[in-house]
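Handout, section B. The chain below has 118 residues.
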Amino acid sequence: MKFPKTTKRYCPFCKKHTEHKISLLSAGHKRGALKHGSKQRARKRGRARGMGNLGRWSKPAVSKFKRKIKGTTKKVLLFTCQVCKKSKQSKKGKRSGRVQIEAKEEKEQKEKLIRGEK
């Protein structure tokens, strides 16, 4: 998916339409192998729980080839106002394989090449 480097949109801090720079929001710090719920479940199923399977299934875990993994990730865009320098995220992440942020000049040049102009 392609996005321009800058776009005009409403800035809630300036309370008017201004030029915004578009960038991708970085993934940030990873927490660890297990999420909070998984940690709780591991603790619950772990030590000192007595005999038997305590009502849990006696089947083995789902093998790797049966697990379905999504081919794309949700990318969140970050809009930075060029006037007040404050940033705002896009409401929902767009699911796409690759995100390209390009300048308007590059886009215009590509369009001219397609049309056969110089």
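Note. The radius of gyration is 24 Å. Compare this with the example in section A.
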